[in-house]
Amino acid sequence: MANKLSAYRAKRDFSNTNEPSGEGATRSGARLRFVVQKHAATRLHYDFRLELDGVFKSWAVAKGPSVDPTIKRLAVEVEDHPLDYGDFEGTIPKGQYGGGTVELWDRGYWSPEGMTAEDGLAKGDLKFTLQGERLHGSWVLVRIRNRYGGKQVTWLLIKHRDEFAREGDDDALLAEDRSVASGRTMADIEAGKGGAPKPFIAKAASVAKDAVWDSNVVLAPAQRAKRKAAAAKPPAQPKPKAPAPKTRIVKAAPPRPRRKRPE
Ligand code: MN
């Protein structure tokens, strides 16, 4: 697992982003889970993630999945993500890798069709069924030759024809902008409004509402936990006030309205 996630971890500074580092306790299920995260990074895209062997195989789908079987959507393979990422909703600080707002747009269960997922991936032709809140039925990911240069591995995400296909949908489904985990819109999440996402992957009864920073100070979950523990523990002997835990200042951050850090 550590190896599978090394690319993921190498891209992120966990003292500056509240994205999961992959160490959170997750529920293990008999069924494989999938999530789709709407991600307003430099360019809006939808991260499509399928659970396999303890991680999420991940693709960035530039225009998002289409339920119209005549539409093929470019899906760029990205690094495996930790399972606890599947509960992540919030804002990745600007200047960090993937900076921008993330909304849990869909989630549910998936299963490969006709062969194992490993064989489908190796073959570059993964057929599968989704049972989500928004996406259903049969789909395929087909690996294609990279026409765009660079080292990216590119696939097409296509809806198969079945009772869940909607020809002429024209991305009406994609326009639904409400988190399946919290009911919040992208604007709500960005503004830090509304309730916390209900966890689907994490063992915990609740997950952090936001990766929103407190003014321009960002604390990673581990640091926050340490802080909380330190605050809860009475000092063994009277001593001068302990220095505040070290926090990192995001220098590049543009001025933002002050927000309360949810605990
Ligand atoms: Mn993304």
Structure description:
- This protein is mainly beta and 263 residues long.
- It has one domain (24-211).
- The protein has four helices and eleven strands; from the N terminus they run αββββββαβββαβαβ.
- It has an eight-stranded antiparallel beta barrel. The protein has a two-stranded antiparallel ribbon with strand order 10-11.
- 33% of the residues are buried.
- Mean pLDDT is 83; it is low at 212-222, 247-255 and 258-263.
- Manganese (II) ion is lined by residues 39, 41, 45, 47, 60, 98.
**Largest sheet, described in full?**
8 strands, antiparallel, barrel
Shape: globular
H-E order: HEEEEEEHEEEHEHE
Radius of gyration: 20 Å
| Strand count | 11
Helical amount: 10-25%
Q: Give the number of domains.
A: 1
Structure ligands: manganese (II) ion
Uncertain regions: pLDDT < 50 for 5+ in a row? Answer: 212-222, 247-255, 258-263
Mean pLDDT: 83
Strand order of the largest sheet: 1-2-3-4-9-8-7-6
Distance between the first and last residues' Cα:
29 Å
What fraction of the residues are assigned to beta strands by DSSP?
A: 25-35%
Q: Structural class, from helix and strand content? A: mainly beta
Give the count of helical stretches: 4
Characteristics of this structure?
single chain, mainly beta, two-stranded antiparallel ribbon, 11 strands, disordered C terminus
How would you sum up this structure in a few lines?
The chain has an 8-stranded antiparallel beta barrel. Strands 10-11 form a two-stranded antiparallel ribbon. It is built from 4 helices and 11 strands. By secondary structure, it is mostly beta strands.
